């Protein structure tokens, strides 16, 4: 597991990776700042895609039915955790940190029909 800061030139590549390979993963977005503390913005909604518009300086996350925009992002950190999750941290021009955690949905085994017969 390595955490690394991505250069701005790498942001579109990461967005493409997230859109291609992380679509359907469950997303949680936590927003942290000195002004309002730590708040969960999104919890367990499916991630559909991510893009960065350099002209308008906006990072866009398509999560569930939400279009989550991060204006004026200044830093982007990527943590490709092993196996079933990954995390991003985006810091905007105001110092607000947004942590996006992506995990595969928990899948439970189908119930054993014979176990209920007694």
Describe, in plain words, how this protein is organized in 3D.
The protein has 118 residues and is mainly beta. The chain has a single domain, classed as Distorted Sandwich (Protein Yojf, Chain: A), CATH 2.70.180. It is built from one helix and eight strands. An eight-stranded antiparallel sheet has the order 1-6-7-8-2-3-4-5. Strand 4 and strand 5 form a beta hairpin. The longest helix has 11 residues. The model has no long low-confidence stretch (mean pLDDT 90).
Tag the structure with descriptive keywords:
118 residues; mainly beta; Protein Yojf, Chain: A; eight-stranded antiparallel beta sheet; 1 helix; 8 strands; 9% helix; globular
Profile the largest sheet.
8 strands, antiparallel
Number of β-strand runs:
8
Task: List the total number of helices.
Answer: 1
Choose one word for the global shape.
globular
The name of the CATH architecture is: Distorted Sandwich
Number of domains: 1
Strand order of the largest sheet: 1-6-7-8-2-3-4-5
- N/C terminus separation: 47 Å
Computed over alpha carbons, the radius of gyration is 17 Å
**Which series of helices and strands comes N to C?**
EHEEEEEEE
Class of secondary structure makeup: mainly beta
In percent terms, what proportion of residues is strand? over 45%
Using the coordinates shown, work out and report the CATH topology.
Protein Yojf, Chain: A
The overall pLDDT average reads 90
Q: Fraction of residues in helices?
A: under 10%
Unreliable residue stretches: none
CATH class equals Mainly Beta
